[in-house]
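Propose amino acids for all 446 sites.
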């Protein structure tokens, strides 16, 4: 029989009064615990700082006297803390209600593409180079494309998201309508105005105006790892530095960047987490590298000025399973011009002002139809060169440097390249998987 320890004579028994209000005391205890949790360093206060940095500080609330918080308010605080912690660890967060609304309201664009057959280089850090298309500047007619089996994707009038899926249901791109937010619309239009002001033709050289992607000025900024370099570098915009600083410091640029990042994170969480982990490892290794916005996971951005009409091309040096985020801005009729054409997918996509489209630009050939006469359109793009990932995967060195430093590890890295493309396909999501709460793991790449 277990022994029973007698109570200490110094400890008096506690007897509740018949008038004690236990529910009220419990509420006070829970509130005190909440306040204690939220005051811990690195807890919800840090997450709120992150939210404030991205979206601006929350408006102050009035202190209204009244009874203790209701059960609903306590649950709301608990959900908010969980969401804040998700933002801290993952980079973004959506409420359960918003998540259900987006997934249940999604209108997938189905294609016949078999993603596994896309042309990628050994190791899947870049795509295979392809022969230059004949007559790249030739403008296709929508009618001719439709007769050739292309789908015409009209702008979503109800704001429904449009994930692009392959024949196996893998989400390989996304059409994200502009948020229905007056402040976002104003910021986007203000950014467009600044870009137009900075589009003075005399500021660009002939090489900047006429290039393989089209006849329009374009400036890349951020950091990247160009071919032939031993380590990533911050792009030097030289005489365009002030122009880029003015554009990137606009509130609209930060808002669009955040929306592009959130769209990638929501519809392609496996790729987002893979890219985020590599970029953050690189920035910790080399703090001199500068992002275009504080939290973006895209190392490089591009501003395409004036009436952008891209020739038919692939960006083969980008990561082949990563997505490039493209946002159109301007005063133009999106039903008459500015359409995005995705050739392997056989899609013609209406691309209105402030809409964002995310695609694997390294492997999917894409081009634009010019806008109508008198209309004006520009593009803001974010992307990641595959060489960035190769550099991080090699222990922050190039293939050549790895071979010189550690031949055995180099041979292991080369052997792993055979399976990398297949593993990268495992990072892609399906609509059914997202609805089930699945998040592909990047553990295979650690």
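Proposal:
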């Amino acid at each position: 029989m277990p022994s029973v320890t007698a109570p200490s004579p110094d400890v008096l028994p506690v007897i509740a009064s018949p008038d004690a209000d236990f529910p009220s005391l419990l509420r006070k205890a829970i509130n005190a615990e909440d306040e204690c949790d939220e005051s811990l360093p690195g807890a919800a206060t840090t997450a709120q700082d992150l939210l404030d940095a991205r979206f601006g500080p929350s408006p102050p609330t009035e202190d209204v006297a009244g009874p203790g918080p209701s059960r609903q308010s306590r649950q709301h605080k608990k959900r908010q803390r969980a969401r804040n912690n998700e933002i801290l660890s993952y980079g973004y967060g959506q409420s359960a209600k918003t998540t259900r609304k987006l997934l249940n309201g999604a209108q997938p664009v189905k294609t016949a593409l078999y993603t596994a057959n896309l042309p990628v280089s050994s190791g899947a850090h870049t795509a295979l180079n392809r022969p230059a298309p004949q007559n790249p500047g030739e403008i296709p007619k929508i009618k001719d494309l439709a007769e050739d089996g292309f789908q015409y994707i009209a702008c979503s009038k109800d704001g429904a998201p449009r994930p692009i899926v392959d024949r196996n249901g893998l989400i390989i791109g996304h059409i994200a309508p502009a948020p229905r937010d007056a402040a976002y619309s104003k910021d986007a239009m203000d950014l467009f105005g600044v870009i137009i002001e900075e589009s003075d033709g005399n500021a660009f050289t002939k090489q900047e105006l006429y290039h393989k992607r089209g006849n329009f000025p374009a400036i890349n900024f951020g950091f990247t790892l160009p071919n032939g370099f031993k380590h990533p570098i911050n792009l030097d915009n030289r005489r365009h530095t002030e122009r880029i600083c003015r554009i990137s410091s606009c509130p609209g640029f930060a808002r669009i960047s955040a929306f592009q990042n959130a769209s990638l994170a929501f519809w392609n969480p496996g790729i987002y987490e893979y890219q985020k982990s590599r970029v953050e490892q690189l920035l910790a290794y080399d703090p001199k590298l500068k992002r275009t916005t504080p939290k973006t996971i895209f190392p490089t951005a591009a501003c395409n000025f004036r009436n952008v009409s891209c020739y038919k091309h692939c960006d083969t040096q980008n990561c082949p399973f990563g997505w490039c985020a493209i946002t159109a801005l301007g005063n133009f009729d999106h039903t008459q011009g500015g359409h995005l054409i995705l050739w392997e997918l056989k899609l013609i996509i209406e691309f209105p002002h402030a809409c964002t489209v995310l695609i694997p630009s390294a492997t999917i050939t894409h081009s634009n139809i010019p806008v109508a006469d008198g209309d004006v359109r520009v593009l803001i793009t974010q992307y990641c060169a595959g060489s960035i990932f190769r550099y991080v995967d090699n222990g922050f060195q190039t293939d050549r440097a790895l071979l010189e430093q550690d031949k055995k590890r180099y041979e292991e890295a080369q052997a792993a390249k055979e399976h990398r493309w297949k593993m990268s396909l495992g990072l892609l999501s399906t609509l059914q998987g997202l609805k089930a709460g699945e998040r592909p793991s990047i553990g295979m790449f650690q």
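The first strand starts at residue 109 and ends at 110. Confidence is low (pLDDT under 50) at residues 1-17, 29-66.
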